[in-house]
Amino acid sequence: MDYYKLLGVEKSASPEEIKKAYRKLALKHHPDRNKGNKDAEEQFKKISEAYAVLSDKEKRQQYDSFGSAGFQQRYSQEDIFRNADLGDILREFGINFGGGGRTTFRSSGGGGIFEEMFRQPGAGGRTSHGFQDFRQQQQVKGTDLSLELPISLSEVLNGAEKTISLGRGSTAEKVSVRIPAGIETGKKLRISGKGSPSPMGGPSGDLYLLIRVEPHPTFTREGSHLTMDLQIPYSSAVLGAEVEVPTLEGKQLKVKVPPGCQPQAKLRLRKHGLPDSQGGARGDLLVKILVAVPKGLSDAQTALVEKLKEAGL
Is the full-model pTM beyond 0.85? Predict the structure, then answer.
């Protein structure tokens, strides 16, 4: 399910644009304005699910990182609608929210239009699947766990498949997790059902991996850009030179330093930085020029420097 396409917005859409698009579609498809129209009801359910995800910063990042299929594996319908209050938007249109709690759009609340939509009557009209079952499961769900996951800058560049070991009593469980390219320190990855088991036989909690990108000896990260220092001799700064610059991939690039290059000047190597975590263009590598001043000179070098001094350099 492509949430952006459902709302008719670009992947780069701002929160305001997403909210505006949902307002327009919700007004058109809301069941209260389409009595008995199952197609409209289904479409309303889909656009509301899309808005519940894209209006939440963390859920949107997870959706963008893992795609629709990966996101659906990690988030249940309860997770998607948890803390999503869509009623405030729709009240702006004067849509009827009275009567038996139809105003409730939060998955933690009672009743509500989404519970009616997801209800599948069984014996005696009971709900066999839906938010009622989800709420019952939530009460006996196991505890969520959090672990810090250190990764290298090279793994940020290419993405990675990491295997972590979880202690389960006297045994250890191996769990694989995909690290998306461009991920940043402080981001969380959620692995459903890998937290603590429920004490009452319900579903296990979830595992949250807190990303920490380790420092690199050469490169410093600035968003999707990389920076590094490069020392060159004084003569190269004055006369210009061709120098070799390392990249994070392990390559050596030949770069021209222009004559008269000033200390602290930066050379930009386009698209040799990191991939953008939102799927944008790759960043740049910024090379800061440092002019090396020797601590000791030979007699011949001293004589040359003295001549430069006499010449006003």
Answer: no
